Amino acid sequence: MPSHRPLPGLERLLEVCRARAHPVKLEPPVAPGADALVAGQPLDAQLAAIHARANYLWVHDELYLFPARHVRRPDLHRVNAHWRQDWEEPFASLLVFGKDDRLAYCYATVPWLAEAPGGPQPVVWVDVYETLYAIPVASSVDGFLATYARYLDVAPSSTAQSEDLPPPRSFPWDAGAFIAQDLALVRRVEAGHFDGLLHPSARARDWMARRVLQSARQ
Predict the structure, then answer these.
(1) Are 201 and 132 in contact (CB under 8 A)?
(2) pLDDT, tens digit, 9 for 90 and up, residues 9-67
(3) pTM of the full predicted structure?
(4) pLDDT tens digit string along 90-126?
(5) What is the predicted pLDDT for the residue at 1?
(6) 104-113: which pairs have CB atoms within 8 A and are 24 or more residues apart?
(7) CB atoms near residue 99 (< 10 Å)
(8) Do 133 and 197 form a contact (C-beta atoms < 8 A)?
(9) CA 142 to CA 140: how far, in whole Å?
């Protein structure tokens, strides 16, 4: 069952939040199980397991995961139906599952890059502001949460920042060394699996080469 699937990345993120007294919110699942498809795309099994434990996850000033279904909040189905109307391929086939807590950047899985049917889908960070592009940040959803936990664990306390301003650091730009620890992701980046998503942004391609791939080789 999805609720019994081990999720060490999720557990580590919650542990870091508790240790740092960082505000976090979990809401209980609203239904037993999750939909197999979202906007025509297969739902990642790790994401389904997270939703079997919590319909909604929010980490203050950092990120939140959209609920599977919700009567008031944007949920997986409504969010992905919306982006399908605006994005061209290959971005239209991403499955958006989360968002930056302060800005409009999104997190999405890449269903067509699952290495086997039902296997983990890699995760990308999506810049929706100007030229649409995406940066690979993890080889799986739970791996993404583990990477974010490492990033958050060494971050300055958010309580020292004004509530009116975003923190002076940002994911993924300040997390290259942590992303580079995901060797499965690094191998796929080197193999060119994400070229179509990175191509629109020279800045993203250069950052990936210098801050992630070079770090992984050290």
Answers:
(1) no
(2) 999 999 999 999 999 999 998 766 557 888 888 999 999 999 999 999 999 999 999 99
(3) 0.92
(4) 999 999 999 999 999 999 999 999 988 889 999 999 9
(5) 42
(6) 104/128, 104/129, 105/129, 107/63, 107/137, 107/144, 108/134, 109/44, 109/47, 109/141, 110/136, 110/194, 110/197, 111/41, 111/42, 111/44, 113/188, 113/193, 113/194
(7) 20
(8) yes
(9) 6
Model confidence over 175-191: pLDDT tens digits?
999 999 999 999 999 99
> In 3D, which of 32, 20, 23, 96 has the Cα closest to residue 65?
96
Residue (of 21, 38, 6) closest to 145 by Cα position: 6
Residue with tokens 């990642």: 44
Q: What is the 3-state secondary structure (H, E, C) of the chain?
A: CHHHCCCHHHHHHHHHHHHCCCCEEEECCCCCCCCCEECCEECCHHHHHHHHHCCEEEECCCEEECCCCCCCCCCHHHHHHHHHHHCCCCHHHCEEEEEECCCCCEEEECHHHCCCCCCCCCEEEEECCCCCEEEEEECCHHHHHHHHHHHHHCCCCHHHCCCCCCCCCCCCCCCHHHHCCCHHHHHHHHCCCCHHHHCCCHHHHHHHHHHHHHHHHC
Considering the chain, what is the average pLDDT of its residues?
A: 90
